[in-house]
Specification:
5 helices; two-stranded parallel ribbon; about 210 residues; Rossmann fold; alpha/beta
């Protein structure tokens, strides 16, 4: 059975994705800075690795077939952490994955990462970091899926999404639970080509929207 490394497994989306994969009896290696944040998870399919993403975490990838990068610096941190986590840790993860022969790398990116210059203000450094991390993955030689969710909400999973950006900017949002369920679908199905797509709450079942 394949083994998936989830980087940022104690974050909101990362933990949801971890729980979903475990419920589907998928082998998961959860990479976290503080293992106590996963103390409520108990599964024979789970291995927890405690490691700081600002250091060398390459050994955590050994033996894994797939990587989900769901880590983020968080909205309350400064640009320094954005560079170190959203950019540097993400690029290191792709490099380590290539070195260890990972078959598929799933990157949780962001809407706007395709064109950071279209955004001005405090969000721009974050989108630049996401853009550069995505470009590194694209050029890494790995098989990849890059998911660019809209504005994240804490709504319950509707299990209905779309990859088409809504014309009304206020509708360009998606629940974290919907993102996590999309990651489950991506991680447990085979796709023959590299893909980049945005993801929003919508009107199609995840399996139909994320083909």
């Amino acid at each position: 059975m394949s083994k998936t490394l989830i980087i940022g497994a104690s974050g909101q989306i990362g933990k949801m994705a971890t729980e979903l994969l475990l419920k589907n009896e998928q082998n998961v290696v959860a990479l976290v800075r503080d293992k106590n944040k996963l103390s409520d998870l108990n599964s024979s399919f789970l291995t927890i690795v405690e490691q700081d993403l600002e250091g060398d975490f390459g050994d955590a990838i050994k033996g894994c077939d797939q990587v989900i990068f769901a880590a983020g610096s968080g909205g309350s941190t400064g640009d320094d952490k954005t560079v170190l986590i959203d950019l540097w840790a993400a690029t290191k993860a792709a490099t380590f994955a290539k070195e260890h022969g990972v078959k598929h790398f799933i990157m949780v990116s962001s809407i706007g990462a395709d064109d950071p210059d279209s955004i001005q203000g405090d969000l721009k450094p974050y989108l630049v970091a996401k853009h550069m991390a995505d470009e590194h993955l694209i050029n890494s030689g790995l098989n990849y899926t890059i998911v660019r969710p809209g504005t994240l909400t804490d709504d319950s999973a509707s299990m209905q999404v779309t990859t088409q950006r809504p014309s009304d900017r206020s509708e360009a949002k998606i629940s974290r639970e919907n993102v996590a369920n999309a990651l489950l679908h991506i991680a447990t199905n085979s796709f023959i080509s590299n893909r980049i797509f945005e993801l929003f709450d919508g009107d199609k079942p995840i399996k139909a929207a994320v083909k």
